[in-house]
Amino acid sequence: MKKSFLIFIVLLFVFSGTLAENIDIRFTELTKLDLSMQAELVKYGAFHGETLKALKQWVDFARADIHIKDDAALAELYYKDSPLMYFYKDENGFQLDDMHYYQGTDSDFYGLIKARDPLNKYRNVKAVFLAAPIGFENLCLNMADMAETKKGGTTIKKLVKPAETQTFILDGAVLQSYWQSAVESFKTALKKNSPDEMFINKAINKLKLISFEGKCTVRQFISDNGKPFAWRFNGYTLLDGVDKRKTSLTFGKTQEGFYIKLDMPAEKGKNKININAAGSFKNDKLLSDGNFIFRDENINTSGKFDISLNILNGLKGKIDYRIKRKDDKEKRYLINPALKLDERNISGKIKYKYTLGERETSLNFIAKSIEPKTFTKSKSVVKMSELSESALLFERQRLSGVLSRPLAQLLSDVQKEQRPLVLHEITRLFRLNDENLKPLNLPQYTVIQEEP
């Protein structure tokens, strides 16, 4: 359930972020809210018997209280109205127990608890999305004296009909001479929106290794306010200097929508990259759909998504995402929010369902507004940037003990003779899904030697 709930939270952040870029000032109030959420475990296909019974009991008697104010957030987890654990975060750091306030970044937090940042991929994709127009504009600006300009042009899906179209037809070698400057401007914009230096360096290195061959056509579409909003490329590209692809790319972005279409089949063989996605925001409705395929010698991944959300006085609709990797079974995530927003009061339900082949996990989350709460930070401040390796290890081990106490408390609510089996089944599932998770050192709960 931990992994499924994590994915639910990620998707919620992703689409709340998308909404935030397009929705009017009413929804900035969502940065100041006090919300309580309870869940109902409808089905969990991975478990049955005593383990499922224990999970249902834990979920039934648990609740999460969330308080957000300006740049600070507090999330508290309760079980039978008793506090289990909390997490506080503001713009300068975070706190996980009453002993220390840790001064540091998001990366410091995930490094401390040795976990992957679930929002990192989203932030990187969003950074690319915001930086791409700057790179394209730079490319066309540097080639301005080569432009053939005409009135009007082809309407871009989900966007608008251009007032003007600029066309650049040039040899791949000439385009290459302008490409590196565009990549540098893209890198600068990327750094403003993503703190992930490893991702940025990897992306920029890949882009620098792209070269062009033969006749290439670049088009820039200008709106009636004189600003470019979409771009199109057709021609041959070489990835890493050797992988030749016939490439067709269209990218467009406005306040009311976006459109991305990329087709890159290999000149030889079955390798290909295909992305087709579009979205619009009009009349309080966010609509988006798309599909993708990534195929090479090692990867064969395909997926599709369909989003339909109405934000009039709340949030209603669906988020439907499917993905299939190589020989694996298809995974599907379906979220149906039905939340009502009255000034700053939120109430309603969110249905979540995850399926892996025939196996299904489904939960209902019930939300309601609660009274605001003030959090007092610990006066003991630990600066993450100043921790030595040994000090970091000490803090990590200390917090491991702190964070394991809720599990012991939950297990105490399970019949004594069933506890070892419940713990064994739950932790085994998590370790099978995450190679970084290690077995818990709790000899009193050891059941049997794990199966290979």
Architecture overview:
This protein is an alpha+beta fold. It is 30% helix and 41% strand. The chain is built from eight helices and 20 strands. The chain has a 20-stranded mixed sheet. Helix 5 packs antiparallel against helix 6 (197-208). The relative contact order is 0.14. The model is unreliable at 1-29 and 435-452 (pLDDT under 50).
Please provide a brief summary of the model:
The chain is an alpha+beta fold. The chain has eight helices and 20 strands.
Entry keywords:
8 helices; 20-stranded mixed β-sheet; 452 residues; elongated; 30% helix
List the helices and strands and how they pair.
Elements lengths: L1 H21 L9 E13 L4 H12 L1 E8 L2 E8 L2 E9 L2 E3 L5 E3 L2 H7 L7 H23 L5 E4 L12 E8 H22 L3 H12 L2 E12 L5 E12 L3 E12 L2 E9 L6 E11 L2 E11 L4 E11 L3 E12 L5 E12 L2 E12 L2 E11 L11 E3 L5 H23 L7 H15 L19
DSSP helix count? Answer: 8
Principal-axis shape: elongated
Helix-strand makeup class: alpha+beta
Residue ranges: pLDDT <50 for 5 or more in a row?
1-29, 435-452
Main sheet overview: 20 strands, mixed
SSE topology string: HEHEEEEEHHEEHHEEEEEEEEEEEEHH
Look at the structure and give the mean pLDDT. 84
First-residue to last-residue Cα separation: 22 Å
Radius of gyration, in angstroms, nearest whole number: 25 Å
- The number of E-state strands comes to 20
Strand content: 35-45%
Helicity level, as a percent range? 25-40%
